[in-house]
Automatic annotation (TrEMBL):
E.C. code: 2.1.1.-
Species this chain originates from: Xanthocytophaga agilis
InterPro entries linked: PUA-like_sf (IPR015947), PUA_sf (IPR036974), RlmI-like_PUA (IPR041532), SAM-dep_methyl-trfase (IPR019614), SAM-dependent_MTases_sf (IPR029063)
Residue ranges annotated for the S-adenosylmethionine-dependent methyltransferase domain, each copy included: 174-348
Family, per entry: Belongs to the methyltransferase superfamily. RlmI family.
Record-annotated RlmI-like PUA domain positions: 6-66
Record protein name field: Class I SAM-dependent rRNA methyltransferase
Length: 393
């Protein structure tokens, strides 16, 4: 039996609709439980609706992972192993091939496992346990990953000062098998060195795989700028697609250095790749270069709802600067990964940048996150990546 969290009358609707979050304002009676404990969720009449991880200090006071009125014993490893197996099956069927051995394996709420992110790099998983509840089930997660054949598991948590979840596990290997160096993976046949220890997030941005493959088709003979390049994801695909020249710009020296190494890893020293460590706003303002194709993939400018107006101005300024550097008839790949800026707003922002640039613009593609970053249909908040491919006359 698990401690009970009782909802206020009328607050069971979202749970009946399988939304995985319970906000503290909807709770009539708190459970006698500690941070990270599994609790059962009851409606005002005492009917059991779901189970979740309790987060007493968070506004999202409970994150649900099971919608059932039945008694369930979550100390059974099989329960968790099955969740991991079912997420793995989808990736095995639709993503992993002889050409691609990396993908996101567990995408938190998108895979009905709140607080768990697992990125697969060949036989290595880089794991993030973002809430106390997911930390408490770590042994089951590790067991489940090993069961599907993962050899190395590296924990890479964010330890933000003041972060209320009190996740205490230290970053490092959770398996007795360890790796020294960075890991080289294959994505659509191109190679990337992943610095899982010091790199950003889990070491690589797996969510742009499909969009990078699309860029490859637009690159033959083109001069390409990859702005906010990180370790050169889009750049390497552009080179693979026959670009005549590629410039990667990122504010992080380590990232652009790895972009250069990735270019050499795939194409040798002679290739025309230039890595530039600079602020992209400054670069776009000052450069005399013009490009056939530009990619703009900045970090999330709006980390919360309050930041949306400022972030919108940032996206507009960036896109206006980008459009100005596109040769007539050229192509812009532009993205936002701010969850708080929805698809419609993003399109309006780009509209206003295009209007200020006084150029004709066509939308050729509307892009999103790939299937290994699935959106739980009951949790639209999980949709975060938006992109537009524009032809600029
Ligand atoms: N497109 C990349 C991922 C980009 S992540 C890929 O496919 O792998 C965002 C990147 O923006 C990070 O590498 C970060 O270092 C960089 N960044 C953040 N602010 C920046 C700025 N003002 N100018 C240039 N780069 C910046």
């Amino acid at each position: 039996m698990y401690p009970s969290l009782v909802l206020k009358s009328g607050r069971d609707r979202s749970v009946n609709n399988r939304h995985p979050w319970i906000f503290s304002g909807g709770v009539k009676q708190l459970p006698k439980a500690e941070n990270g404990d599994i609790v059962e969720v009851l409606d005002n009449q005492g009917n059991r609706l779901a189970y979740g991880f309790y987060s007493p200090q968070s506004q999202i006071i409970c994150r649900l992972f099971e919608f059932s009125s039945l008694p369930i014993d979550f100390s059974q490893p099989d329960y968790w192993h099955q969740k991991i197996q079912s997420a793995y099956e989808i990736r095995k069927k639709y993503v992993l091939t002889a050409q691609t051995n990396c993908c996101r394996l567990l995408h938190a709420e998108g895979d009905f496992l709140p607080g768990v992110i697992a990125d697969l790099y060949d036989d290595l998983v880089v794991l993030q346990l973002l809430i106390k509840g997911s930390e408490k089930i770590a042994p089951h997660i590790i067991g489940g990953l090993q069961k599907i054949g993962v050899r190395y598991i590296y924990l890479k948590n964010k330890h933000n000062p003041g972060f209320r979840e009190e996740v205490v596990l230290e970053n490092g290997f959770l398996t007795s098998n360890t790796l020294q160096d960075s890991k080289v993976v294959l994505e659509n046949g191109v190679k990337f060195a992943i610095d899982f220890e010091k790199g950003q997030k889990t070491g690589f941005f797996l969510d742009q795989r499909d969009n990078r493959a699309l860029l490859q088709n637009y690159s033959q003979g083109k001069k390409v700028l990859n702005a906010f390049s990180y370790t050169g994801g889009f750049s390497i695909y552009a080179l693979a697609g026959g670009a005549s020249e590629v410039h990667s710009v990122d504010i992080s020296k380590d990232a652009v250095q790895l972009a250069d190494e990735n270019s050499t890893l795939n194409f040798g020293k002679d290739v025309i790749h230039k890595a530039i460590a600079e602020d992209c706003f400054e670069y776009l303002k000052n450069t005399q270069e013009e490009y056939d194709v530009i990619v703009l993939d900045p970090p999330a400018f709006a980390k919360n709802a309050k930041a949306v107006p400022n972030a919108s101005r940032g996206y507009k300024e960036l896109n206006l600067k980008g459009i100005k550097k596109i040769k007539p008839g050229g192509i812009l790949f532009t993205f936002s990964c701010s969850q708080n800026i929805d698809r419609d707003l993003f399109r309006k922002i780009i509209f206003s940048a295009a209007a200020d640039a006084h150029r004709n613009v066509r939308i050729l593609h509307q892009l999103t996150q790939p299937l290994d970053h699935p959106v739980n249909i009951f949790h639209p908040e999980g949709e975060y990546l938006k992109g537009l491919v524009l032809q600029v006359e």
